[in-house]
Amino acid sequence: MTDRKITVIINARNAADCIEPTLKSVGRGIFDEVLVCDMESDDATVEIALRYGCRVVTFPKAEHTCVEPARMFALQNASHDYVLVVDADEIVPRALRDYLYERLTEPEPPAGIRIPRRNYFLGRFMHGTYPDHILRFLRREGCRWAPHAHAIPQVEGRVESIPASRHDLAFIHVPRENMSVLLAKADAYTESERIRRRERGEKATLGKLMVKPAFVFFKLYILKGGFRDGTAGFIRAAYNSFYKFVSLSKMYEDRIGLADGRHPDIDSLAKE
After folding, report:
1. Digits of tens for pLDDT over the chain (272 positions)?
2. In this structure, are residues 38 and 16 in contact, taking their beta carbons and an 8 Å threshold?
């Protein structure tokens, strides 16, 4: 029989400077269990988690550049049938907590719920990225989470979405991001995506390189109202467009066999 308790899972790596507001929103009896899956932090992340009464498990950092390889490990270590997956820089509103427990009183709760997220960037709420629905409330049974950047978990059963109009139920996402961090993430995450796209046989063409990054900017800045966010909104839309460009460019490198940056016939070039 499925239990109606919730384990909050927080995947973390060197999150001591941001995890405490997250723990204040979920720990010390607010949820049935808080499980911190730490990727070998060398700061005070684990000590802070223990202070808030969390259970801590460790996943080897190795060469991983994103948290997704640790997602399934954390799911397997949760004590309860339902989990709420939260990043270390996200805050869970009390209204969301109450909503999720209320849904679990239903005779047949959904197997997953997509939750909107209010993203903040350069000190401002980003209209252009809202509602940014993410599938983070899950029934563990039958769930699969692929180990690549931005992977979407696969669940068995009905999945619902919280309406975008319910701002009170949205995650509050306040990431530790400046432009240096964002550029490093673009390189690391697109490298993870490169492997997945290569396995799926996806290819980048000149048309995709010209159109897709431009559409990302148009969608965020114009269609979704990023222009209302001033300079920060313009920078965010431009960055997301750049991210798409980098991802497609790496796919093109794979297509022509130059992913390692080495020209295949460099000796002949020297003779020209």
Report:
1. 567 899 999 999 999 999 999 999 999 899 999 999 999 999 999 999 999 999 999 999 877 767 888 899 999 999 999 999 999 999 999 999 999 999 999 999 999 999 999 999 998 999 999 999 999 999 999 999 988 778 899 999 999 999 999 999 999 999 887 899 899 989 988 887 887 777 777 888 999 999 999 999 999 999 999 999 999 999 999 999 999 999 999 999 888 887 776 666 666 655 65
2. no
Residue 111's CB is within 10 A of a number of other CB atoms, namely 19
Q: DSSP secondary structure string, 235-247?
A: HHHHHHHHHHHHH
Residue 57: strand pairing partners: 37
Burial of 260 (0-12, 13-18, 19+ CB in 10 A): exposed
Query: Residue 166: is it exposed, middle or buried by C-beta count within 10 angstroms (0-12/13-18/19+)?
Result: middle
Is 46:20 a contact under the CB 8 Å cutoff?
Answer: no
**What's CA 237's distance to the chain center, in Å?**
18
Per the DSSP assignment, residues forming a β-bridge with 117 are 171
Pick the closest to residue 197 from 162, 239, 153, 150 (CA basis): 150
Residue spans of the domains in the chain: they are: 6-173, 179-256
Classify domain 6-173 at the CATH superfamily level: Spore Coat Polysaccharide Biosynthesis Protein SpsA; Chain A (3.90.550.10)
Task: Note the helical H segments in 142-203.
Answer: 179-199
Strands 82-87 and 117-121: unpaired
Nearest 5°: CA angle at 122, between 17 and 250? 90
H or E stretch at 117: strand 117-121
